[in-house]
Amino acid sequence: MTTGGVDFSKLDPADVDTAAMDQRVPGLPEAVRESAGQPAKAADGSIWLGETAKAPPAGRWDGVRSFFAGRTGLLILLLVALGVVLFFVRDGFGAWRKRSG
């Protein structure tokens, strides 16, 4: 008797269309739907144990982090950094000119 786990060495990763899947495991969508509330038996005899779970709530910083991870956020971050550098370079050269003259 085997309990738990998945043996991926016996997995067949071939693409299967809808008709072939219905032929291999008839009634699978219904079994999956039923398994959300209680164990459900598929037509091939396999038992499906499903569970519904909600995604964890997004924190305040998750949105900011995901924004800056994208291209637009990165571009804005680089432009702001360039502006800060240019401000200090300009300000530094202005102070240097006043002292040298």
Question: Which bin fits the share of residues in helices?
Answer: 40-55%
Helix count, per DSSP? Answer: 4
| Alpha-beta classification | mainly alpha
Low-confidence stretches: none
Strands, total number = 2
Return the string of H and E elements: HHEEHH
Q: Indicate how many domains the architecture comprises.
A: 2
Question: Average pLDDT, to the nearest integer?
Answer: 79
Tell me about the largest β-sheet: 2 strands, antiparallel
Specify Rg, calculated over alpha carbons.
Answer: 30 Å
Shape: elongated
Strand order of the largest sheet: 1-2
Strand content: under 5%
Question: Between the first and last Cα atoms, what is the distance in angstroms?
Answer: 91 Å
What does this structure look like?
The structure is a single chain. Helices cover 53% and strands 4% of the residues. The protein is mainly alpha-helical and 101 residues long. It has two domains: 14-48, no CATH class; 60-100. It has a two-stranded antiparallel ribbon. Strand 1 (40-41) and strand 2 (47-48) form a beta hairpin. It is elongated and about 90 Å long. The model has no long low-confidence stretch (mean pLDDT 79).
